[in-house]
Amino acid sequence: MPRPLAGLTRRNVVRELLAGITLLAIAIPLNIGYAQIAGLPPTAGLYALVVPSVLYALTVSSRQLVASPDAAAAALVASSIGGLAMAGSADYLTLALAQAILGGILFLLLAVFKLGFLANFLSKPILVGFVGGLAFDILVAQVAKMLGVEIDSGGEFIDKVMGLFTGLDTVNWWSVVISAMALAILLVGRRVARAVPWALVVLVLATIGVVLADLDEAGVAVLGPVEAGPPALTWPVIDWTTWLVLVPSAMALTLVTTAEGLLVSRSYGEKHDYPTRPNRDLFAFGLGNIAAGATGGFTVGSSTSRTAAMDQAGSRTQLPSLVTALGTLLLLVFGTGLLEDIPSPAIGAIVAVAIVPLLGIREFRALWRADRFEFLVGVACFLVTLFIGSIPGILVAFVLALVNLAKRAANPAIDVLAGSGEPTQSLLQEAPEGSVTAPGVIVVRLAAPLFFANGSVFGDAVKRAVTAAPAASVHHLVVDMEAVTDVDVTGAESFEALQGWLAERGIVLAFSRVRPDARARLVHLGLLGDHEVYDTNRAALAALAARPNRHDADRR
User: Which three-class secondary structure string do you get for 507-533?
Assistant: First the structure.
């Protein structure tokens, strides 16, 4: 069992503490912005940095993965509960708390039953498209905030776009100036000195400017009063039907966090040579989300950008998360007055810069070059998430994942083997004339389980190999079963039809290199029967070719 704060030593404690201060400077402005995206008060974003961060840091196996609300989680919260209650209302906050608790329970179930593999169905194209759609929806709302245009941030994407364009005549030019300066500082500063918390610098400078020039009187929106005090224990009180309504969105949040979080956790563990335990990480996410829902926060996910920032700062432990929790608690108790005059355009600029990488522009380009079908899968997820909603987006993502899986499984490698056991050509295309392994013998290898998606494909490939050989020259067909791990009922039926086709032509069917489990399955399905099991080395094939009418070739 990994010990809490694994990797922390006397030699690196100062570096870890400094990294914690950096994480605090990054997390506070971002979490305030993400809380606004989710339609929640700023304290919801700050509360999520306190108790959830502590529980997560003390139980997770990953030494670097940062758990916190992120842009994708905030957008999912807004899109999934926006139709159930008015954003900013007490009922809306209650639903967000309940959603986080449900997500936490689902994380715990995934950990206990070791079901984290389910997130593998969210392939890279699906994640890129899904998160990109959420990010683009967020970006529209942030652009409106940067321009000082009021839109319904909880509405549908089309409504947001229309509200933005129809409200261009109400642009507040002071807001534009603040946004432009914030963007310049963030983009240039990131190139000059990446270690500097430029988001915090922007908030401080923008707030000072608003206070000194009374820009709130000129129409610049500010954050407003922020409730002071530490997070308190609470529990959302809603009827059981509402709990059920929240389950699909909680499942979506859980799956996206599982897929992204475990991938990032494993990649950093491999990079720095320390072990990670996926089910323990899921357990930590479960505790963190239940704590978020029970202390006034909202759904906690994995923050790839903050994890990368901590890696660049040299952090190799979870101590920065504990430093951030303590710093946020002190801010909530003693310093909420400092937050009241933060200008919304500056928050919009910070969030916009943070989410632009989530649009997946580079990833879509890479997919276009690598695989057009997977590119289309990503685009479909992007469009469904953007124009229909996050829950339909995740459902379409799973359907497309299954379609992609079936598409690949339906076209396995099927080869005619040479006497050495090496493939001479693939049978997925038309077999060339003379496609035989040895005189009168064809050995075919299927590099996949035989099941409903590829049973007929395999049968057609074998028929092509037989008919492409010189007329009446094939008397034995050997199926190399080394790579066949399983056979289902539909695959067995297709194989039986192939057996009949071969028998009509006087071709003897045999098997080679049958795996023990596959052999038991073949016997159970009645496919092995009296068929011989041969070796496929050169000597055995030569002997088999020399005895076309005998069934007692070199038995394995």
Answer: CEEEEECCCHHHHHHHHHCCCCCCCCE
| β-bridge pairing 441-446 and 533-534 | unpaired
In the chain the domains, ranked by start, together with CATH numbers, are: 13-223+233-405 (no CATH), 414-546 (3.30.750.24)
CA distances to 134, 144, 242, 344, 389 from 157, in Å = 10, 13, 25, 20, 9
Higher pLDDT among residues 144 and 531, named by residue: 144
Q: CB–CB of 41/324 below 8 Å? A: no
Alpha-carbon distance of 233 to 290, in angstroms, equals 11
pTM: 0.73
Helix (H), strand (E) at residue 106 = helix 90-112
- The kind and range of the H/E element at 473 are none
Q: Could you tell me which residues are beta bridge partners of residue 66? A: 303
pLDDT in tens, 515-527: 888 888 888 888 8
Taking each continuous run of H as one helix and of E as one strand, the counts in the chain are: 21, 8
301-303 and 414-417 as β-strands: parallel, antiparallel, unpaired? unpaired
| DSSP H or E segment with residue 132 | helix 124-147
Q: What is the pLDDT of residues 38-78, one digit of tens each?
A: 889 999 999 999 999 999 999 999 999 999 998 878 888 98
Tokens of 7: 């990797």
Sorted by sequence, the CB contacts under 8 Å of residue 165 that are 6+ apart come out as: none
At 86-100, the pLDDT tens digits run 888 889 999 999 999
Report how far Cα 165 is from the mean position of its chain's Cα atoms.
33
Name the residue with tokens 């000059």.
192
